[in-house]
Design goal:
Length: about 525
């Protein structure tokens, strides 16, 4: 069956009182070049387009949109003819050369079903009413519902020639599409007359949700109903958690606690000892996950090793890292991201005494287009002092580094300098910055200096779980732009590069703030905030 077929009524279908089969499509299209964002659109006019940051999120949203409509819509109608009956459909091709015998090669058969067809490349999903034979002949088609047949399974047959057509019963519930196919009148069949007052209308019982939690099916007749609904919902929540891109241990612990309570109540109702044992295991799992969450966020008890071993292990180191970033932002002598990055790395090496060592290998590892020129400009403005010519720094080897001095960081006679760090603290801060700037994926993608500055700025301002901001509320893009020495409008492009390098997950820019979280891979480089920054 062709993916782009439209529903056209056949002559035999119209003569037999049949109604057009419904067709409804959800599409996934790219937003534009140079962007990973995608657009999810629905052929139903009432559904608005959605924009998602990546194709994986778009496919998830598209399938969820399709499932929501299938749950809300009416089932297949036995009086509908195949919606795939159109030019280009291999099962309903027109007779070649007018030979009517060629049309008999394929005849629709079986009950009307509601089938879903998906593109193998994950670009579109289509639901349509068709006969069982056409659904079976369509590659990749999945039948989700079948129409109820009249008279013990007999499908309604077309009326004989000359007989008055029987009006079809109208569909109940929302339609897959409000767009009528070409050649079909907008007016539908007449509504049946209302029931007389002598025949009360019986309320149709609502179908119960079919659920499964763990390896157990939730019985449909389990009472109380609130317990059954809780078990069904918990099963759906656990399956939804497995589809998350990043782990959320606090959420998982809450789910295990709810599961323990629900299984305990279930065991009390049916008197099953195995259910009580499962409830105990769920309670133990909740405690274990809680402990893992404390380890990961640095809130572990005495004697417990933290789950995330951070490069900077203490709150004092985290605060000093942010202090260096702010100092370099305010006192950098030259404009531009490359000069800002060079000043930051040199300041960390000379933070304690105002003096440090530098080699040509160090400069080669930083994304600088003209390191000799930048060093010369820093020396000319008086911020940097090196013995001899700055060109000798490039030739220096690790066994014979070049000593340099930053006069503004040298401690004065009245007290320490602006960065009064201990020897071990200075080494840890310099090593942390070097690990971020030289991180493997940032280096392989040859990201620019401003991207690596943004990586440093984001790593220094997260919550214990890696979400940006003290409580995951995000960071102001204006402050990030000032730290990276770029315009605020350029931050979006830098964020896209970090997301492509697997640094950021769920990044979003809205209202002048950047929200998201560091990925699990780079969480050891983070410096959690204990309170929102000033």
């Amino acid at each position: 069956m062709d993916a782009h077929a439209t529903n056209e009524p056949s002559e035999s279908g119209e003569a037999g009182g049949r109604v057009p089969g419904r067709v409804w499509t959800v599409r996934l299209d790219p937003v534009g070049r140079g962007s990973t964002a995608v657009r999810v659109s629905c052929s139903r006019p009432a559904c608005a387009e959605q924009k998602l940051p990546a194709a994986a999120a778009g496919r998830t949203a598209a399938t969820a949109h399709l499932s929501a409509h299938l749950r809300a819509g009416a089932g297949p109608r036995p009086e509908a003819y195949c919606a795939c009956r159109a030019g280009g459909c291999s099962a309903h091709t027109d007779p070649v050369g007018g030979d009517e015998r060629a049309a008999a090669a394929w005849r629709c058969g079986g009950p009307v079903v509601l089938a879903v067809i998906a593109d193998r490349a994950g670009r579109w999903w289509r639901a349509l009413e068709c006969c069982a034979r056409c659904a079976a002949a369509s590659p990749g088609a999945r039948v989700v519902a079948a129409a109820a047949t009249a008279g013990g399974g007999e499908r309604p047959r077309p009326a004989a020639a000359g007989a008055a057509p029987v009006p079809a019963a109208p569909a109940v519930g929302p339609q897959f599409s409000h767009r009528l196919p070409p050649g079909v009148a907008a007016a539908g069949p007449a509504l049946p007359a209302p029931r007389g007052p002598g025949r009360p209308v019986r309320a149709r019982p609502q179908p119960r949700r079919v659920g499964r939690i763990g390896q157990r099916d939730v019985p449909e007749d389990l009472s109380p109903v609130a317990l059954r609904d809780e078990l069904v919902e918990l099963g759906e929540r656990f399956r939804g958690y497995q589809r998350l891109a990043e782990p959320d241990l606090a959420l998982l612990a809450d789910l295990h606690e709810r599961k323990a309570r629900a299984l305990g109540d279930w065991a009390d109702v049916v008197g099953d000892g195995r259910l009580r044992a499962e409830a105990d295991r769920a309670r133990q799992a909740a405690e274990t996950v809680r402990r893992q969450h404390r380890h990961r966020t640095g809130q572990c008890d005495d004697g417990e090793a933290p789950g995330v071993v951070r490069v900077l292990s203490g709150a004092g180191h985290w605060e000093r890292a942010r202090t260096v970033l702010v100092l370099v932002r305010d006192r950098a002598p030259l404009p531009g991201p490359q000069a800002r990055l060079l000043v930051l790395m040199l300041a960390l090496r000379a933070a304690r005494s105002g003096s440090g060592n530098l080699t040509g290998q160090d400069l080669d590892g930083w994304p600088l287009d003209d390191p000799v020129g930048l060093l010369g400009e820093l020396a000319e403005c008086g911020w940097l002092a090196v013995p001899g010519d700055v060109g000798e720094v490039i030739a220096s080897r690790p066994e014979s580094p070049t000593a340099f001095t930053v006069p503004s960081l040298v401690p004065g006679p009245d007290g320490p300098g602006p960065l009064s760090f201990g020897k071990n603290t200075r080494a840890k801060l310099s090593g942390w910055a070097q690990k971020v700037v030289g991180e493997r994926k940032l280096r392989k993608r040859r990201t620019a200096a401003e991207v690596r500055l943004l990586a440093l700025a984001l790593a220094a301002r997260t919550d214990p779980d890696g979400a940006l901001g003290a409580s995951g509320e995000g960071l102001e893009t204006a402050a990030l732009a000032a730290l990276c020495a770029v315009a605020e409008g350029e931050v979006a492009g830098l964020v896209e590069e970090l997301a492509a390098a697997d640094w950021l997950a769920g990044a979003a820019l809205a209202g002048g703030r950047l929200t998201g979280r560091l990925t699990e891979r780079v969480l050891p480089l983070s410096c959690p905030l204990s309170a929102p920054p000033d």
